[in-house]
Amino acid sequence: MRINRPRLRRDGRDFVVHTDGWLKDGDLNSATGKTVDPLPFHGMTAFPYPQDETPPAELIKMNASLNTRRRDQSAFRERLRRASESTLHP
């Protein structure tokens, strides 16, 4: 089998990819690391944003329809507790 592929041009072009977004870590020691909320949005004055500041209505509606998974961390925390006890008291 022979596949004809176009040859790649080597003309020295460079590309820049510009992204705009936020990273929210899941560190339990973070101010809001236990939950997805509050989600950041353009125009907020601080993060977490003050209680008197709210995201745009269309963002609230989108988040309500897309972010529907809820996780319970109690099993994870219990495993951590047991693991730390077993290493402290063998």
Shape: extended
Largest sheet: none
Question: Residue share in helices?
Answer: 25-40%
Radius of gyration: 23 Å
Overview of this protein structure:
- With 90 residues, the protein is an all-alpha fold.
- It has one domain.
- It contains two helices and no strands.
- The chain is extended, with a radius of gyration of 23 Å.
Characteristics:
single chain; 90 residues; mainly alpha; 2 helices
List the helices and strands and how they pair.
Layout: H1 57-66, H2 74-88
Concise account of the structure shown:
The chain has 90 residues and is an all-alpha fold. The chain has helices spanning 57-66, 74-88.
